[in-house]
Structure formats: C-alpha cells, structure tokens
C-alpha cells in the first residue's frame, strides 16, 4: 500500500471517529453558536438601555417645551383696563385725566393692553399730527358725567407722554367711552349712549391702548 493510500485511509478513520462522537453525519459542520449568542446578548443590552434612557430624554424635552411655552406667554401678556372711574386703578403707571388707564405691575415689561371695545362719541381732524388739536377737556368731562361708571377718554398726538389707540385714524382725535371686553357688553354700552340722544353718530370700535415709544 503506497503512502497516498495510507493518508486517505487515516483521514477516513478520523472522520468516522468524529461522527461517532458528535452524532452528526460525516461532512456536516458544527454551527457557530457562540457568535450568535453574543450578538443576541448585545441586542438585548441596547434595547434595555433605550428603554431606560428614552423616558428621561422625553421628560427633559417636555419640561423644556413647557418652559418655552411659559416664557412665550409672559412676553405676550397684555394689561387689563381700568374701565370704571369709580374704582381705584391699581397700577404702577401714571395716567392723565383724559387717558384710559390700565393695570401695570411693578417692574413690568407690558407695553399695551388687552383688546377692548369703545363707543366712539366724537372725532376731530388733526392734520400733520397737530398736538394742539383734540376734543376739549370740557366736553370730555360733560360726557363723563353722563356715564359715571364707564371711563370717557380722549386721544392726543403721538407724543411719548401720551397713549396710543390702535384701529383708529391717526389724522383724527377721538373721544370715546369704554365699552368692555365683550361684544355683548359693548352693545349695551352703545345702546346707553344712543339713549341720551346726544351722540347720534356713535359707533363701536375694537382696539388696544398703550404708551407711545414703547
């Protein structure tokens, strides 16, 4: 028997012994289980970490969004109107008798008010923003006497010491009575104005007020 035949015989004997020990057919290889088991363990570890970290991340995000929302609400806060001249107006600002006062807290950054309705009683033309033209104070006081529980106010020129009134023609000065924040209240105020018979052309206008130059 030559050497090549002897080597082939030995290889066949080893294969037979391996098959007997493992119980697998000759030529079938053993699966690589260790690599698969390690990959499975790593996947489970990553999943557990995600379950633990994700709620913390989401909680932080929600807190941040809520904080931004609160900050946003603070920047757009508008002052409320002191519409009844018989009730003291708790405010840090100083107003003139013809102004429509509003509540300004100490160290506040508020620069205008909430939306409200006014009943326009009278208007006068004021070309070139003439500060000498406005409804006389005597007329405002006479109108105020007719509506003791609703502030009657009048506008002035666009000076830093004066108030502005939105949704009005800048070439006119107005005299108006506070009509409240709801349309229902404003309609009642308009009806009371017309009932006097002194302001037949009175009408409603929704607006804000605030300090010029802010």
Which features would summarize this protein structure in a list?
single chain; 214 residues; alpha+beta; two-stranded antiparallel sheet; 4 helices; rod-shaped
- Contiguous uncertain segments of 5+ residues: 18-22, 29-35
Biggest sheet strand order reads 2-4-1-5
Number of helices: 4
Number of strands: 6
Overall average residue pLDDT: 80
Query: Termini distance?
Result: 113 Å
Description:
The longest helix is centred in the first third of the chain and has 43 residues, at 33-75. The protein has a domain at 116-211. A four-stranded antiparallel beta sheet has the order 2-4-1-5. A two-stranded antiparallel sheet has the order 3-6. The radius of gyration is 42 Å and the shape is rod-shaped. The chain contains four helices and six strands. The model is unreliable at 18-22 and 29-35 (pLDDT under 50). With 214 residues, it is an alpha+beta fold. 40% of the residues lie in helices and 15% in strands. The chain has helices spanning 3-22, 33-75, 137-146, 183-195; strands at residues 116-125, 152-154, 163-165, 172-180, 203-207, 209-211.
Q: In short, what is this structure?
A:
The chain is 40% helix and 15% strand. The protein is an alpha+beta fold. The longest helix is centred in the first third of the chain and has 43 residues, at 33-75.
Annotate the secondary structure layout:
Blueprint: H1 3-22, H2 33-75, E1 116-125, H3 137-146, E2 152-154, E3 163-165, E4 172-180, H4 183-195, E5 203-207, E6 209-211
Antiparallel strand pairs: 1-4, 1-5, 2-4, 3-6
């Amino acid at each position: 028997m030559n050497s090549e035949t002897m080597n082939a015989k030995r290889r066949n004997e080893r294969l037979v012994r391996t098959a007997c020990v493992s119980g697998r057919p000759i030529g079938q290889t053993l699966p690589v289980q260790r690599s698969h088991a390690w990959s499975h363990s790593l996947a489970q570890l990553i999943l557990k970490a995600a379950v633990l970290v994700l709620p913390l991340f989401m909680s932080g995000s929600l807190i941040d969004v809520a904080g931004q929302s609160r900050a946003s609400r603070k920047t757009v806060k508008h002052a409320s109107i002191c519409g009844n001249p018989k009730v003291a107006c708790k405010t840090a600002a100083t107003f003139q008798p013809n102004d429509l006062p509003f509540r300004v807290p100490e160290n506040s950054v508020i620069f205008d008010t909430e939306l409200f309705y006014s009943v326009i009683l009278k208007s006068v033309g004021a070309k070139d923003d003439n500060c000498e033209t406005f409804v006389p104070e005597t007329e405002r006081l006479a109108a105020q006497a007719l509506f003791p529980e609703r502030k009657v106010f009048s506008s002035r020129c666009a000076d830093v010491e004066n108030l502005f009134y939105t949704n009005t023609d800048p070439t006119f000065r107005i005299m108006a009575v506070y009509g409240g924040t709801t349309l229902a209240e404003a309609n009642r105020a308009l009806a009371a104005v017309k009932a006097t018979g002194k302001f037949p052309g009175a009408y409603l206008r929704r607006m804000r007020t605030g300090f010029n130059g802010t």
